[in-house]
């Protein structure tokens, strides 16, 4: 009984694929794949790994060289709410040199909201092509990572101590918040210190 579909045992052999294309690493437009955070490195040899992070399906992983970010923030903007399907975003900022993806750019999807494009171009939102976990917002020089993905190790107390290094210094776009956060941390109405400081209830101070 014949079956539809590709059995792989019938018909002529497929032609040799892509023989006219230059190797990937010679394409000018793909140089970014050979720079941090996508450049492939032997982590343990190059630097001591502080943390490892995984997407939900664990096909994507990266390591961090530092045990704390340059800064961390909670962002309450509407875009972050929609993108994360959450009341707000928790983002930690690292230099690109301090982040290294285990499989380079392989298995990643990109989305530039300013260009409305899936072509790689910073700033871009990076996610797992398989399970679609959001991995980071990549800027020109820094990565805004989402610390929920980091596998903190040890007892729950030890994990909490490590996570404390990622506590945010401030909330931004607090004006657009879904809920009040009475944590006493500084709150900006908009993007940064050029905007108004608000109290936990969202009133200007
Ligand atoms: Zn995944
Ligand atoms: Zn935001």
From TrEMBL:
Gene3D superfamilies: glutathione-dependent formaldehyde- activating enzyme (gfa)
Region of interest: Disordered: 1-32
InterPro entries hit by this protein: CENP-V/GFA (IPR006913), Mss4-like_sf (IPR011057)
GO molecular function list: carbon-sulfur lyase activity; metal ion binding
PROSITE patterns named in the record: CENP_V_GFA
Domain of life: Eukaryota
Residues covered by the CENP-V/GFA domain: 51-189
Pfam families: GFA
Keywords linked to the UniProt accession: Lyase, Metal-binding, Zinc
PANTHER family in the cross-refs: CENP-V_GFA DOMAIN-CONTAINING PROTEIN-RELATED, GFA DOMAIN-CONTAINING PROTEIN
Protein family membership: Belongs to the Gfa family.
Name of protein: CENP-V/GFA domain-containing protein
Organism (species): Penicillium steckii
């Amino acid at each position: 009984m014949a079956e539809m579909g590709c059995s792989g045992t019938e018909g002529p052999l497929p032609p040799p694929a892509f023989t006219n294309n230059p190797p990937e690493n010679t394409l000018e437009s793909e140089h970014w794949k050979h720079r941090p955070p996508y450049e492939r490195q032997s982590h343990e040899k190059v630097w001591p790994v502080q943390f490892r992070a995984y997407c939900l399906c664990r096909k994507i992983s990266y390591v961090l060289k530092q045990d704390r970010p340059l800064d961390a923030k909670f962002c309450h903007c509407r875009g972050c709410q929609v993108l994360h399907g959450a009341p707000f975003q928790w983002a930690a900022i690292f230099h690109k040199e301090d982040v290294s993806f285990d499989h380079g750019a392989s298995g990643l999807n990109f989305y530039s909201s300013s260009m409305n494009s899936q072509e790689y171009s910073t700033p871009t939102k990076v996610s797992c092509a398989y399970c679609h976990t959001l991995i980071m917002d990549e800027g020109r020089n820094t990565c805004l990572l989402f610390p929920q993905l980091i596998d903190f190790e040890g007892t729950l107390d030890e994990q909490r101590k490590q996570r404390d290094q990622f506590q945010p210094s401030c909330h931004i776009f607090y004006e657009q918040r879904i809920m009040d956060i009475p944590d006493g941390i500084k709150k900006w109405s908009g993007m940064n210190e050029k905007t108004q400081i608000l109290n936990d209830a969202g009133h200007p101070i």
